[in-house]
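User
New here, help please:
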Amino acid sequence: MDPNNPGPEDYGHDRSGDDTVPRRQSRDPLTPDFGHQTPQQSRTVQLISGDLLLTVNPVDGSEIEPCRPGERPAAPVRHTAAQRVDRERAAAPPVPAGPPAPQLPLLERQEDRERLVRLLARGRSVRLTGPAGSGRTALLDAVAADCASLAPDGVVRLSGHKRTVADLLHALFEAVYRAPLHRPDREGLLALVQGVGAVVVLDDLEFGGAPLQELLDATPECAFLFGATPEVPEPGADSGIEEVLLTGLGRSASIELLEQVVERELTDEEANWAGDLWFESQGLPLRFVQAGALLRQRDELRTGPEAVDTDDDPADVPPFGTAGPMATPLPSLGEGAAPAALLASRLSEAARDTLRFAVALGGEVPHQAHLPALVGDTHADAALGELHRSGLLSPAGPRYRLAAGVMAQLEASGYAETADAHARSAAQHYTWWSGHPSVTPERAVAEADAVLGSMARLVPGEQAGQASVAVLLARSAAPAFAAGMQWGAWEKALRTGQEAARIAGEVAEEAYFHHELGVLALCAGNLDRARAELETSISMRGALADKAGAVAGRRALALVADRSGDPAPSEGGPAAEDMPAPRPGDAASPPGGVPAVLPLFPRVTDTSAMLIPRQEPYPKATAGARAGVLRGARRNLVAVGAGALLAAVLGTVVTLGATSGSEGPEGQSVTTEQSASEDDGEDGYPADEPADDPASEGGTSGDGAAPVSPSGTATPSASGSPSPGTSAPDKSPGTGTPSSGSPTGRPTQGSPSPTKKPTKPPTPTPTAPTTPPTESPDPTSPGPSPTETETDPETSDSAGGPAESAGASASGQSSATADSDPTTA
C-alpha cells in the first residue's frame, strides 16, 4: 500500500468484486465471503514510555505496567549525517502528480537571508514575522540550506502547525536520536534535548510568551529560526530573540515574479493590471503567484474548446479559433485580490471536489493517495498537482493545506454547503483505512491532521449519526496514533471521541476513551488526571459488567496509587463481578463458597453489640458454617463482657464491706455465694420474678455497660475468675476447689452467676473465724437441672434473646450447685 504507487486495495476498490462493497464487510453476515476474509485487527504494539511498559491494545484498552530491568531499551543513539538527510527528504511534502511547477526565484530577500544566517551562526535565536502569504516558507528554506554545516547536529526542520511545546520537544528528539519504540518521559526528554546542538527551523509557530521561553530553556544549545504571523503572541522581554520583520515585494519585483509564473513577458495591459494588484495586495508574493495562475488559465482558454470546462458561462467562452489577448478579458481587481473561486471554477471536477473535502476538513488536504477513494475517480491523484500549480495550496510539514485566505474565499463561494457530507465520507474512509492491519502507524501519523479535521467537523454534529461515525473513527485511529508515538494527535482523537460517545450515548466507547486518557495522563506524569479518568472508566465498565475492561482499569489505577504514594485501602477491594475469571490451573473454591472467619474479639465501640450481635442473613450454602463460627464468637463475647463486670462488682462489694460501720467479722468476709438471699422477698422483689427493668431482659443495662440484676447488683462473670488485678476467688470449705456455678467446679461458658441480692448479713462461724462463712441457699428454691443450662442461645425460646436465656440458665445452675454441695448441708 505505497501512497505514491497506489493499488486497488488502497482505495477500497476490489477488481474481483463489486466496488460498492467494502472488502472488510461480508455481503451476507450469515454466509461470509470465504474468498475475501478480512484480517483481524492485530495492531498490538509495546512501547517504552520512561520506565513504563505500554501495550497498545485496540480492543479492551491499553495496558501499562512498570518496565522490568531486562526490557528497558538501550540509550538513544544520534543519527548520522546521511541518516539526517534521508529523514529530511522523507519529511518533505510529496511531489504532486502532473507537470512540475516552475521554480520561482527568491526576489528582494537576499539582505534578509544574509542577516538571518549571521545571527544563527552566532547562536542567536530569531523570529521571522510576516503576514500570511509574504513568502516566509520560501525564505526559511533558503536559510536552512545556508546553515547546513553550522551545528554538529545539522539543521532540523519542524512544523509548529497545531503543535504544543511537548510535541515539538519530542519531534526534536526523534529528529536527532534513533530510539525505536521508545518515548522518554519528561525528565529523560529534557536531559536528552539539552545536549542537542542544531539549527532548528520552526515554521508556523503558534505560541509565544511563557511556552516559547520553556522551549528555549529546554534546548540551550540550539539556535531557533521561528516563522510566525503578527497574530502570534510575542516572546518575552528576557527571551533574547531577535525580531526580523518581513514585508511585501516592490512593484518591479512583483511584476517579475508574475512573469516567472506565467513563463512569458506581460503585455502592457497585463502590466497595468499587475500594478493595480500590487497596490491592492501590498506586494504579497502569494497574490502574484495566484494572479499568474489566472493569466495562465486565460492563455489556456484561448487554445480551443477542449480545454474549457463545461461549468463555465458560455458567454465568457470565446469561439473556437479566436486568438489575441481580448478573447478572454482580464480578471477584475477584486478577482485578482481574492482569486480562489475563479481559479477553482476553471479546474477539473476532481480538483473542485478535492477543495470541498479540504474545506470540510478545516483546510487540511488529504494525501493524494486517498483522493481516488474519496473523490471516486481513479485519476483524482492528479488534482493535487492542479491545486498546487494554481497557488491554492501551501506546504505544512510532510503534507499540504489550503493557502492563506483560500478557505474563507471558498466558503463564501458555497464550497461549505456540503461540508458535513464530505466530512462524513472522509471519516468513513479513514476509519477503514487507519484500522487496516497493513497500514503502519507511521503512515497513520502522517495523515493525522486530516483525520482530526474530519472528526472536528462531525463533533458536535447536528445531523443524525454524525457522532457515531466520529466514535468509530476515533476508535480506529487513536491506537494507530499511540503506536506511532504522535501523542498529541492521540490525545486529540481521544478527547474528540469521548465527546462524540457522550453525544451518541455509547457508554462502552466512552469508558474506553476515559481509560485511554487515564493511561496517557499516567505516561505524562499527571497522576491526578490519570486517577480521575481511570475511576470514571472503571465505574462505567462496572455498570456495563465489562470485567476485562474493569480489571485493566484497576491495574492502571493501582499503578497510579503506587506512583503517587497513596496507601492501599485497608478494607474492601474489587467487587466480585469485577474480579478476573479463574485460570485453568487455579484451585477451585468450595461449592458453598469460603466462609468468612470472624475474629473472636472484634474491635467495637458499642459494648451493647458485644452481647447482642447483629444478625445478618447469609446464603443457604454457607449458613451452617457461618452459624457455627458466630455461635462460638457470641459465647466468647458474653464471657469477656461478664468477666470484666465481675472484677468491678467484687471490688465494689469488698470496698463497701471494709468501710462499713459493722464491727463484727461478717462485715469483713464476703463470698460470691452470698449473692443468693436466705430470705427471698424481704426487699420487695419476688425471688422468682425479674424486675421490670428493660436492661435485665436484654442482658445489658441501658448504656450497654453491664447486665444488672433485679436487685440492682451487677451480674458476675460465668467463669467465676476475676480480672487481672483482683484477688483470687474464695474456695468452698472442705473441698479445696474454687466454687463456681458449674456442678464440676469449672466455669461454664455463657452461664453467669446468680443475681439475687442477700437480704441479711452473713452469720459468722465461731469455730473458724478465718474461714468465710457459706450461706446455704433455700432448699425449697426451685432451679433447673444442670443439663438445662447447656441450652444453645441460638435455639432458646426466651423472648429476651441469647443473653437473657444465658442469665436464666446461670441462675438455675448456681442453685443446683449449692444444693449438691455437702459442706452446706
Q: What stands out?
A: The CA atoms of residues 293 and 390 lie 5 Å apart. The first helix runs from residue 81 to 91. DSSP finds 27 helices and 13 strands in the chain. The longest strand covers residues 223-228.
